[in-house]
Write a structure and sequence with these properties.
This protein is mostly helical and 179 residues long.
């Protein structure tokens, strides 16, 4: 039989479950996401078209529609109240969405700044490494330098051999004469 841990006794690395609370839970992120959706919709052309159509229908029904359908006569006070109510809810939602966007922009700016600092540090490091390699290469014999030195040595050896040949020739003549 496998001994399984019970649900009520989590390990030390697991937080304890809280009991039921009489207060409702509030998730600010969820509310923020909802406000962003609402603000995005309020700022769309679709919303402007629907709102314009609804206002036009309201005005037409209350001016040229049948007398029984006039719920809000000419000064359209109820329409004004509805638009004011909509604006009073829309403004804070839009501001909340803007604040969340500015927070995201701030985080993105900080990440971009850190990335830029790392790139600058990396490029400085690489520049120092390239400079060190150039200095080290200045002390290292290059292929052309070695070729030139070998040519000079071959020329010196040829001169030395020619000089030895010139010294040997009279000795060889003397040897031939002595024979």
């Amino acid at each position: 039989m496998v001994n399984r841990p019970s649900r009520r006794s989590p390990g030390i690395d697991q937080p304890l479950e809280r009991g039921l609370s009489l207060r409702g839970s509030y998730d600010p992120e969820r509310f923020g996401r909802i406000s962003e959706r609402v603000a995005r919709y309020i700022g769309s052309w679709g919303f402007i078209a629907w709102m314009s159509a609804a206002i036009a229908i309201w005005i037409l029904l209350n001016t040229v529609g049948p007398e029984d359908w006039h719920v809000d006569p000419f000064p359209f006070i109820f329409l004004t109240l509805l638009l004011s109510l909509q604006a009073s809810y829309a403004a804070p939602l839009i501001l909340l969405a803007q604040n969340r966007q500015s927070d995201r922009d701030r985080v993105q700016y900080q990440e971009d700044r850190q990335r830029t600092e790392r790139l600058l540090a990396d490029s400085d490091y690489l520049a120092r490494e390239i400079a060190a390699l150039r200095l080290a290469l200045g002390e290292v014999a290059t292929r052309d330098y070695i070729r030139g030195e070998l040519r000079d040595m071959v020329a010196d050896l040829r001169d030395h051999i020619d000089a030895m040949d010139l010294e040997e020739r009279p000795k060889q003549r003397d040897r031939k004469r002595d024979r």
